[in-house]
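General statements about sequence and structure are easier to judge against a single worked case. For one protein, we set the task of working out the structure tokens from the amino acid sequence alone. The sequence in question and its structure tokens are set out directly beneath this paragraph.
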Amino acid sequence: MQKLFATIQKDFRILLRDKVGLMLMFVMPILLALIITAVQNSTFELVNHNKINLLLCNKDTGDASRQLSSAIEKTGMFSVISTTSNTSAEKVITLMHEKDAMAAVIIPNGFSSQIVATANNITNNALKNFDILKDSGKNTPKSVYPLTLYYHPALQGSFRESIDGTLKGALQLVASKQIVRTLYSALNEKEIPDTLENDIVNNQIPIHQIPVSRDGSRNIPNATQHNIPAWTIFAMFFIVISLGGNLVKEKTSGSFVRLKTLPTSYLVALFSKQITYLSVTLAQVAVIFSIGAWVFPHIGLPALNLPSDNIGLIIVSLICGWCAVSYAICIGVFAQTQEQSNGFGAISIIILAALGGLLVPSFAMPHSFKIIMKVSPLHWALEAYYGLFLEGGKLKDVLMNILPLFGIAIFIQLLTLYGLKRKNLI
């Protein structure tokens, strides 16, 4: 035991001398978590609270176009910037850049007349089906609403679909109002009262959005809840730069030969490194989670809500950290040079992070990748953390994520022992 304590003390001293490694293990993930959380939080705010600048050019003078303009403003998604009716399409594109508008809509001349014609067509067909109106053999052709939507190329597909869906909803509202008016007028030979029209058109069933959680909480997950656990895992596995390079340096510098002359097994040295760097991964968890919980609220970002199951959080962090340390040691054993260890270690962690759902959400991956991602330890670690942070689960709820992660760590340990014996290191 005294030999183990002495070896641990030696490894901690070596670690403290590695300033670059400490920066990669602590400063880099903190910056990643801060920057990416800020960017994603601003995106969530844009979708949920802020408004997108929308340039609106209404070339029609009818009532339907004015209703559409009002409906677009009432959606709450846009900050509408109106232009004159004689603005050309080329001028609209120019104004988009000048006004910093992400989208523009042109309502063409004759829009209101098309809405009225379509409403008359639908009303006539409805009355014919009820045998109230005889078939005259004349049907107004179905109209197409020729709205033109310009959008900034920087807008991603999800934003464009949101804008398109919002505009279609406003357009459907205007069309529905005109159909109700026309049908009521045809049946009663008088205009529909405003109260009745509002009751018919605005009679929508509300949708309550409730996040699923195991503990019954109704906290809406924010950008911090998603990013802090993800980039903490990334930080844990990125110790491969320091630990893997340390092992290679011992092999190439002659330190390993001196270690073999000591009256102890090299496995003691490896066990010491595991304890040393496992404590580092736990320190990463403590530092990054503390920043998310107590520093983020002071810089305008949502606070990290820690899970109620502290024991579960500690166990998940221990197994995740042990798997990260095992992977780093395995890379260091098989690598021949520090360049190989650093290069392969860093690239492989990025690939495993991408496969594990840290860079791209797992639900957005192709079906073939959903099978491959299960070999990534970062996937199981992320799912375990998400079960605690986002779903409010307990340790028993994330066991099916912890067990595969533990199994991967055991496999990496066995692979490391095979490499040590093959290279006659033990």
About this structure: Strands lie at 52-58, 78-83, 103-107, 148-151. The chain has two domains: 2-43+215-422, 51-201. The radius of gyration is 31 Å. DSSP finds 16 helices and four strands in the chain.
